[in-house]
Amino acid sequence: MESATHRLQGDIMAASAAAEEGGVGGGFSDDAAGRGSREQVRNRENRREIIMSSFWEQLFFQILLLLVFCRHINTKTIGPTPPPLVSISSILPTDIRSVVLKGESQTENVELVNPVNLTLECTWTGNQNKLPNITGFWRKDGDEVENSRLTVQLENDQYNLKRVFSIVSVKNLGNYSCMFESEAKINFVLAAPHMGEVRDKPIVSYVGDSVVIACKMEETKPKPSTWNWYKANGTDKEQIFTAAEPLRYEIKNDERKTKLVVYNLTEADGGLYYCGAVYSINTTMGLVELKVINFKEPLKPFIAIVIEVIVLVAAILFYERYQSKKNYTAGKEMNDQTNTLTQGENNKPEEGSSMRQRKV
């Protein structure tokens, strides 16, 4: 397109130059020259008009082609007009949970697996006053839900409060409360199915051995879509991928059960492990603690007991030896005293006989 434009401009310049050259040359008389010059000027102007009109026609045609080409490109790039967006909440399944409150407070656990439009219905029989109407509103995790306050009429000796919540992700889970002023409330705790059995005591294994850590979901709970395993890394959880370390980890999933096998244990493998039951709405975590000890660890109590026994026997022997020595010393002293008394008794008769001899 640009080359065609340049060619047209060249043609115009060449025609202008040829016209000027034609006007300069010739050996005519003055009159003839005058007439020739006027004819040349007219011819030159006609040629210029013809050339300019042709130039503008071609330029207009090229611009028209350019516009058609650009429109074709835009049509291919943009494509067909997309259909109007459909609200996610309008295609979600629906569910209803109803609770009748007769006291002042009640808690209802609601386990969800998939996103849902959840209708929460609260019915309160009221207090003794039975006011014709009261104020009702909703809270989520302690914060009042925007535009949820309304006047609840007393019908059939009870107050009814209802609201639909779109639960589409984990951020929509939590504690929802319907409030009847400040006198009564019903708590709906929305969460994924909780883990069934959780091991309270840690699993103990030895360095170099293998260990199997297991988790399972109760038979009454929905089956998770899959299972994941995590290891605590400070305050975070680091997911375990068996493909990255096939010689160290193996995961065996069986619908409601999962097992993590850790091979060739080291002391660094000890810590907290999390099994995650994956549902569409959220992942439920179970916690298991693993302790990895050295073979010397079980010997420590035995060695401590042996040391205590040795110390006790040594103390007993020392005490007996001390007592024996003490008894020996006491017996020797008693023998010496006995010998002294015996000698004294033997000396007394001799003194009496000598005195009797003096009397005679």
Q: Give the proportion of residues in helices.
A: 25-40%
Number of strands: 17
Radius of gyration: 55 Å
- SSE run: HHEEEEEEEEEEEEEEEEEH
- What structural category do the secondary elements indicate? alpha+beta
Regions with little confidence, pLDDT below 50 for 5+ residues: 18-29, 73-79, 353-360
Largest sheet properties: 9 strands, mixed
The number of helical runs is 3
Strand content: 25-35%
Overall average residue pLDDT? 79
Shape: elongated
Give the CA-CA distance, first to last residue: 182 Å
Which helices and strands occur, and which strands form pairs?
Layout: H1 2-24, H2 30-78, E1 94-101, E2 105-111, E3 116-124, E4 133-140, E5 143-144, E6 150-155, E7 158-167, E8 174-180, E9 184-191, E10 203-206, E11 211-216, E12 226-233, E13 236-239, E14 249-254, E15 257-262, E16 271-278, E17 283-293, H3 299-359
Parallel strand pairs: 1-3, 2-9, 10-17
Antiparallel strand pairs: 3-7, 4-5, 4-6, 4-8, 6-7, 8-9, 11-15, 12-13, 12-16, 14-15, 16-17
